[in-house]
Amino acid sequence: MKPIAFDKSIILLLVIVLLFGGTVGFAVLSLRADEVGRAMKEDRIMNIAVIVEMGGKPVSTQVFMFYPSGGRGALLDVPGETGVILQRLKRMDRIDAVYSPGKPVAYVEELSAFLDTSIDGWIVLDEKGLVHAVDIMDGLELFIPAMVLQEGENPVRLPGGAVVLDGDKVLQYARYREDGENDSDVVARRHKLFQSIVKRMAEKGATLRRKDVFPSFSKTMKSNLSEEARIRLLSELSNLDADRLILQRITGNYRTVDNQTLLFPHYDGELVRDIVKQTLNALASSSQGPAGNKIFTVEILNGTANKGLASRTGEIFQSFGYEVVAVGNAEQDSQEKTLVLDRYGDSETLANIAAVIKCENTAQAPEVTEGVVADFTIILGKDFDGRYCAQ
């Protein structure tokens, strides 16, 4: 048998390929080396998917939109049962159908496509990681309206009032559900949990960054952010007022498809994409807006004969983070053009609120001596199609 002859040119080509591959791999890893630092240098917003995983599935996903130099942030809750057309599977399904335990790359890609915005990084906390992370941070501050006692496979025993919960109790808080509670209550509890986590990370940032603490804290989570980026994030969170995070959710209708119940977002997801765009613009602006130090109140009145219009419009404004304090009927049902009335006296906020429904008709509101007093009153007219005003 003749010995095998190796062509030196082929060997050289393989070496070049390996070197090129190594260079590309290093470059890809370097892209994640310091996302926070790069966001600060470019003076832009970071979007981070923070996921609590239980039983190999995401029980809570929050898209954390954080503007480090502005010290402002927002949380968007994305339910796992959100119905979308998955790009990888080429079919309608739950958005978490592509989730892989501890490796949410495909899931985050679908999330990014659905929201039509880039997601810079992701952080995953499973049950064990959540417990350990909370204990390292000396517990989480939460307000629980009343004591919770539930029996079963995973019993829940939570004290009522303003309490500091250890890791095991926080896990119970993340798991439990009340019989008959509505979606708003469930989302509010998820928001409170994430808000408390972010607040504690901000408070304990200096301790968590210590060389004798950070390695243990970092091991509680899985992330595509580098060690350097995580340390920088902990540092920048100290500038964030976590109590004033704007909290947003996906609204829609539940329908059964292939024996599973899916949440179909309003307007085929266009509403939530508008929410994300407006939130990013508000966070990056110098004004306080709805993402600043005040949550603006809105009253919505139906000036048409279209029943339920004010209530449905209220859901839109709630999704954008405004507090809808009242919905009802206007004095007449023959309002031709939708009108946004400003009682707060802020022209920029007035423009932001009017932009939610693309309304160009605005004015100062007359004084109200009784009844509900909201910062802004919206009187819906015949030009409003349920989402936008006709231009």
Number of strands: 19
Would you give the CATH topology of the largest domain?
Aminopeptidase
Q: Spatial order of the strands in the main sheet? A: 11-6-1-2-3-12
Low-confidence stretches: 21-33, 287-292
Overall mean pLDDT stands at 86
Radius of gyration over all CA atoms, rounded: 24 Å
What does this protein look like?
The chain has 391 residues and is of the alpha/beta class. The chain folds into two domains: 35-284, LCP protein (Aminopeptidase, 3-Layer(aba) Sandwich); 295-380, Alpha-Beta Plaits, CATH 3.30.70. Helices cover 35% and strands 25% of the residues. It has a six-stranded mixed beta sheet with strand order 11-6-1-2-3-12, sandwiched between helices. Strands 16-15-19-17-18 form a five-stranded mixed beta sheet, with helices on one face. A hairpin with a 4-residue loop joins strand 4 and strand 5. Helix 4 crosses helix 5. The longest helix is centred in the first third of the chain and has 24 residues, at 8-31. Mean pLDDT is 86; it is low at 21-33 and 287-292.
In short:
With 391 residues, the chain is an alpha/beta fold.
Give a topology summary.
Layout (H helix, E strand, L loop, with lengths): L7 H24 L3 H7 L4 E9 L2 E11 L4 E6 L5 E4 L4 E4 L10 H11 L5 E6 H10 L3 E5 L3 E3 L5 E3 L2 E5 L1 H9 L7 H21 L1 H4 L5 H5 L3 E2 L3 H10 L9 E4 L2 E6 L2 E6 L4 H15 L12 E6 L6 H11 L3 E7 L9 E4 L4 H10 L5 E3 L11 E5 L11
